[in-house]
Amino acid sequence: MELFDELNQLMVKYRFRPNRKMAQLFMVKQDVLARLVKEADLSEKDTVLEIGAGTGFLTRELQKKCKVVAVELDSTLFELLENELPKENLKLIHGNFLEVDVGKITKIVALPPYTISANILAKIFEVEPKLCILVFQKEFVEKLAAEPGFLEYNAMSVLTQYHFDVENLGLIPAGSFFPRPKSHSAILKLSASKKHGQAKDNALFYTFIKSVFRFQNKNVTNSVKNSLPFLGEKFKDPEVINKIVGKLEKHPLAKTKTNLLSCKEFVDLFNELF
């Protein structure tokens, strides 16, 4: 049976329609699901997380490979998953991925809601998977993969590249979804990497990056100076400010435009200043 036909049967059986407020899009192309599973390179030793399991079409393909932790917020769809999916290799969690504890997982394969993409990615940083295969809006994927100096390059680009090697694996036709989205979609591959180094304080580094990109068109000295008040009360102390500014003035990147710095340069700069 075609997935679209199966979806229609499930919508009748469980009396639901795609919820626009929850940004629900259902994948109805088996070849796309097969591509996502293949790119994940799953083994029996893996425990894979699915964010927003929906109708379970992807979930059951993942179950054939390894243990699956599937999170679903919608109560009707959670009931569907409980009733329709095999019990083997499956742990279902009813709740919001941003709020629940998913336990120890090794990989993530998912088609999460686009409206909270940035929040989902921030939570993924905390979960620390080895590999992620995700479907997001095309423009969002392009930002994450962007290089310094490009218009799309922003704070989220730096933070994602701090944790992962980022690859845009290409577009997914809009007709692969029901309902058909107005925006284009792309497959994102994230492979855990520490090639850019380790910040001394991750939480402060995140705030630092978000703050300096408020002033991304200024040079490094000015963007850091303007960012200090956003980093906490400690960095409003004149003595602390003068110490950081003193280091900045001697730094080789002091006059470089902020959005031209690479992820590694940001990590090194942060560790030298703080």
From TrEMBL:
Annotated S-adenosyl-L-methionine binding sites: M27, G52, E72
MF terms in GO: RNA binding; rRNA (adenine-N6,N6-)-dimethyltransferase activity
InterPro entries: KsgA/Erm, rRNA_Ade_Mease_Trfase_CS, rRNA_Ade_methylase_Trfase_N, rRNA_adenine_dimethylase, SAM-dependent_MTases_sf
Keyword terms of this UniProt record: Methyltransferase, RNA-binding, rRNA processing, S-adenosyl-L-methionine, Transferase
CDD domains, sorted: AdoMet_MTases
Family: Belongs to the class I-like SAM-binding methyltransferase superfamily. rRNA adenine N(6)-methyltransferase family.
Record's protein name: Ribosomal RNA small subunit methyltransferase A
Species annotation: Candidatus Iainarchaeum sp
Gene: rsmA
